[in-house]
Design a protein that fits this description.
It is built from 16 helices and 20 strands. It folds into two domains: about 5-420, Alpha-Beta Barrel (TIM Barrel); about 440-560, Jelly Rolls. The strands form three sheets. An eight-stranded parallel barrel has the order 1-2-5-6-7-8-9-10, surrounded by four helices. It has helices spanning about 5, 10-15, 45-50, 60-65, 75-80, 120-140, 140-150, 175-180, 200-215, 240-265, 280-285, 290-295, 315-320, 340-355, 365-370, 400, and strands at about 55-60, 90-95, 100, 110, 155-160, 220-225, 270-275, 300-305, 325-330, 360, 420-425, 440, 450-455, 465-470, 480-485, 485, 495-500, 515-520, 530-540, 550-560. α13 (about 315-320) links the parallel β8 and β9 (about 325-330). Residues about 1-30 have low confidence and may be disordered. It is of the alpha/beta class. The chain is globular. α5 (about 75-80) packs across α7.
Amino acid sequence: MSISKNISRRKFCHTSGLAGLAMTIPLVSSGCASLESKKRTFKTLEEKTYNPRLIANEDGFTFLYHSGDDLGANDLKTYLSRWKDTNVDMVAYCVAFGGFVTFYQSSIADPIGTGYKTSEKIEQNRWLRNRERLVREAGDYIGLVFSFLKEMGIAPVASFRMNDIHLSEDPAGPLAGSFWKKNPQWRIGSSYYLDYAVPEVRDYLRQLINEVIHKFPDVAGIELDGMRTPVLFENGKGQELAPLLTELIRQIRTDLDAASLAQGKPRYVLRVNVPRSPELALKCGMDVATWDAEKLVDSISPGCYGTDFQIPIERWKAFLSQRTLVHAYFNSGRISSQYHSLEEYRGAAANAYATGADGVYLFNLPCFDEMAALLLRPIDQPTFPPPQFNAQCWHPDLSRSQQALYELDDPNNIQRKNKKFLFYTDQMHELHYAPEQADIQRENPQPTDLHFRCYEDYSRVKEIRIEIKTVSVSIFDQFSFSLNNQPIPSSCVKRLHAPGGRDRRIHATVLEPYSQYIIQLTSQKKLMQPDENLLTVTLVKQDPDVLGKIELREMELFVNYC
C-alpha cells in the first residue's frame, strides 16, 4: 500500500511515532538521545521487488573505473556489501550507457573498454582490465552483481541510461561505442544525443533489454533511465513524438511478459526515471499518463539532476492510478559539486512524503566512494571498504550522509529529526534542474517572492532559521524580508558579506560579491506555514553606482529539533 493512502500531508506533519532501523554500521547520533531507532519490519524479496520504498541507483563504472586496479570477485562482493542490512529494497544497476556500450559481455553492443586495451589514461585502462578479470573469475561483471544483490535480499534491476552523453568528453573514446560512432545520421542534429525518432535507435535499446533479460536469471526487472538524459527527440517535438516512445515501452512490456511466462518467473518490473513534472515529462516525449492507463510501467521516479526539494508529487498522484508507484528522485547533491548532508536528505524526503510519494530514489550515491578514491592511503591497504571522506573542502561529513540508507524508506524514521532544505541553488537548464530563479532588477527594483515548501510540526521545533545570499551586491545595498506577507523584525536578521565573492579556490560554484543573510525565526515560528511558504525580499536602499541584476541564491532552511 502506498504512503499516499496511509498518511495525509497534515497527518504526516504531526505524526510523532518512530519506526526502526536495522544496520550493521554504528548509528550516527542525531543529537536527540531519546530518538533511538528500532529494528524495521522484515520484508521479503517479493515485497521489495513489487513495492519498494527505498531504491538506490548504481552507475556501474564507479567500481570498475574509480575504485582501483586489479579488482576481482571478492572486491566486488565487498563493494556491494554497502547495501546489505540497510533499508534499501532495490538497486537499479546501470548495465548500458553512452551510445551504447555495456558493462556486460554483449553480443549486440560493445562491452566497455573494447578496443582500448592500452590507453594514456590510467582509469580508462581499469574499465577493461577489471572487467576482464571478473569475466575470468565469474563469467561476467553484471551477472555477478545481480547474483550478489539477490543473495543479500535486495531486488536487482538492470538500468539502461537512455541518452547518457559522458561520451562527449571523448567522442572517439571507449564510452561512445561503435553504434554511436558509425551512425551520426541517427543523432539529434549536431549533438551527441541519439534520436529516438529513429526506429533503429529504439530497436537497438529493445534488443539490449531482451539480451539482459535472457542472459541474467537473477534480474528482477528493467529501468529506463530517462533522466540520463531527458533529451530523446529534437527540441520542441517531444510531445508530438511521444507515441513513438510509448510504442517502444509497449513492446518492452510485451517482451518482459513473454520472457517471464517462458521462464516460469513472476512478472518483471518496468520502471522509468522521468523529469520533475507531468508537463515537462510530456514535453520530453514521456507520456506517463498513457503508460499508466495501459499498465505498462510499475513505477516512475520524477526529479531533476540536482535534487529538487519541491518535486510536485501531488500532481503526479492526482492522475496516476495507485498501481503506478511514484518515488521521488534525489541526486547526491543540489549545489554544483557539493554533496548532501544527512539533514538535507531528510529534508528532501520529508517534503516528498508529505506530498504523497510512495518512496525515495537515490541517484549517484556511489559518488561518495569517488570522493574516497581521491584520498591518499597506504598502497597495500585493501580497496574496500574505502576510507571515509569526512567533511573536507566544502562538503559535509559523507560518513553521516550514508545514514540516509537507514532512514529514508519510511517518513516515520525522519520525524522530529534535524533537517535542512535547499531552494534556489542553481540557475540551470529546465530539463535538469528545478525551475527556481529569483532576482531583482536594479533599473526597476520590485519585491521578489521566493516560494518554498516545508511540512514540519513547528510547535516541536527548537530552532528555525533561513540563510539566503544576495549576489552582485555592495555593502551599500540594503534589503528587508517578510514571510508569508508578515514583516520579519530586523532584530532577527544578521548580515555577512564576502567582498571578493566566491571562486573555485573555496567552492565549485562561483559567485560575484555577495551578502549572506541569517534570519532567525525561532521566536517567529508563527510566521511559518506547515505547507507552502513565501519569502519576500525587498531592496530598500540601492547602491546608485551599480547596474544590472541582483540574484537571490542558495536559500537554506534549517529546522532543528535538538
